Amino acid sequence: MLGWALTFLVVALIAGLLGFTSIAGSAMGVAQILFYVFIVLFLVSAVMHLVRGRGLR
Question: Which of 19, 26, 30, 41 has its CA 20 to 30 A from that of 56?
């Protein structure tokens, strides 16, 4: 998922350099959504790890 976010970020930067604002805006929007989804999934994973209590034996 992070790979997709980085891919769309690179596409947005290249399109921005070339001046295609509609393409850059679309790619940036998708990259931003994927970034937030990745952050939420990471936080859920961290909380689940703490709840399960995998402590040292």
Answer: 41
Tokens representing 47 are 């909380």
Q: Model-level pTM?
A: 0.54
Rounded to the nearest integer, the mean pLDDT of the chain is 78
Which tens digit of pLDDT belongs to each residue from 41-51? 888 888 888 88
What letter represents residue 26's amino acid? S
Task: Compute CA 53 distance to the chain's CA centroid, rounded to the nearest angstrom.
Answer: 27
What SS3 string covers the chain? CHHHHHHHHHHHHHHHHHCCHHHHHHHHHHHHHHHHHHHHHHHHHHHHHHHHCCCCC
Radius of gyration for the alpha carbons in the chain, expressed in angstroms and rounded: 17
